[in-house]
Design a protein that fits this description.
Number of strands: 2
Distance between the termini: 26 Å
Helix content: 55-70%
Strand order of the largest sheet: 1-2
CATH topology: Amino acid/polyamine transporter I
CATH superfamily: Amino acid/polyamine transporter I
CATH architecture: Up-down Bundle
Amino acid sequence: MTESSRTGAATEYTVHGDELKRDFGFWSAFALAFAFISPIIGLYTIFALSLSTAGPGFWWAIPLALLGQLLVAVVMAEAASRWPLAGGVYQWSRRLIGATYGWFAGWVYICTLVVATATPAYVGASFLAPLVGIHKPDNTQLIALSLVILAAATAINALNRMGLRLITIVSISAEVLGSLVIGTILLLFYRENSLSALFDGVGDSGLTMSGMLAAVAIAGWAFVGFESAGSVAEETVDASRTAPRAIVLSLLIVGLVVMYSALALILAIPEHSLGKSADPITDTLSAQLGSGITKPLFAIVVIGFMAGTVAGQASVSRVIFALARDELLPGHRSLTRLSRRQQLPWIAVLIVTLAAVPMLLLTGTDLYVTLFSLATGGFYVAFAFPVVGMLVARLRGQRTARSSRLGGYGLPINVAAVAWLAFEIVNIAWPRHDGAPWYQNWSVTLMLIAIFTGGAVAYRFVRNAVRRLDQPPGTAPEYTQKPPRHPRTTEEAPK
């Protein structure tokens, strides 16, 4: 393994092994995180389920979940400012507590992200089907279309950085049109319900505490993925400043868009179909704007889900690359191989695709429902590693950020973030589905046990490498921006 060391504007920047190409700006990192969180993915994933679970009053769960996740994002942004490296969650955890702690953080995060990469591909397939002339797709057709989406995402991530930039930019444009423009039209011209509907529960009952807790658990899915701006920090110019801003700003903007769009939809739902539709978003838009809106809407939704698949795949491939570069994964030499011109971890991208395919083949089964439950709970457990690590570091008096503007508020924000994650993990894992099989009721807990058990087994094969990498907390070198690499001149080119 080679070591590259250069002097940046502040301190020495040291990278062990292969280096990723640094050519993303702030907007590229922001767009990637925005596409991963995605107002369209978040809203379409949680709206129908939240409405049937808690009624129109579920809307209050959205700002509550957003506030909790903003606490987490601020803490992660501090870590990203000091260690702007590929594989953010793993890197931050490792440098705050130690290599073993970081390895398990990376393991949980990878397992979660693989499922999270397969999910938008499958959901997006249900909107792609009508666009290609399949109006009542069966599960086999949906799986085939989801594999097409996954293959397209793989090509974008493995072949060219411009494709990654382009799909995220197109996604933001689609999100603005599909969320803000349509939401504004609904609010101005098609209101069917008063604001008092926001205090209604299921049926004729008011909003209950149990319903709100379930809605908060569901809303948790809408606000994950912001940390992906930290996963690509090593490819971002002036990453110590741009990555933290992208992490917080992407979450905040997506959260506000989701709140606005959800409000517009709730107030526009025809009263006679409130809580009775399997697809309340499409039905409401068709009822209010006409059936002609369906195809353009589906095209926008497909773009959103496609971009989410690309962003999720890009994020997990960087975590795999980071672990492999530290020799903490089998076949690490291959996993760190970069494409010659674009310097993309193309083998890591292919591994993500191969791991996601079995997830897609399980769609339509009870096991897939269990895996989907893991995707939400797994994110929060993975987030807990660096957030708890930051709290431990603060209590030890270690430096936790390159330059913190939180001042004396840093510790209470960190404590509140830990408390929020603990609450949400328990809330998501809570068995509240009456009549469901026991393994679905306990799906999050069972899957987390399985992941940690598998991690313990896998750890035995990398234990020696982890121990070699480990070092006392707080002694890791500072990671800041390094000078841009100049392209090889004609005279230096190999003959």
